[in-house]
User: What shape does this take?
Amino acid sequence: MKNFKIFVAVVFLSLGSCRENAVKHPSPEDLRWLQGSWITDDSSSIETWALDGGELKGNSYSNREGKITEQLSIRSKDGQLVYEATVSGHNDGKTISFVLQSLKADSLHFSNPEHDFPTDIVYVKNPDNSLSCRVFSSSNKGMTLHMKKLAE
Assistant: This one.
């Protein structure tokens, strides 16, 4: 009987901790690994992220064009993480939002099935501390940018 009581206590404690993890809402602070400046393998662009007041703010700078081409942010909105992008010369200057679909220790996936391209944005921190950013459509067509972190 004593073993049964211990078993029941362990089960209840386990269920309680699972519930606690399930209701935790991710925040931009969970994405600290994304901070810094990242240059693409072909040196065509630099993506920079910084935590600012509970929000990750970023931009993409085109070395070819010599200017910032995207304003980016990841922030909490209505209990969800949202990736927002304003791309110079696209979408009539409107910001496009993508909602977090999955978050792991080394990756995150945002999606907006209503947007023409991309519908999905996936960042992966690779084992060598490089970064991959895959942007693709609902038909799975797209591209992957491979980036390495610039020295701070």
About this structure: Residues 4-23 have pLDDT under 50 and may be disordered. The CA atoms of residues 98 and 112 lie 5 Å apart. The two ends are 60 Å apart (CA to CA).
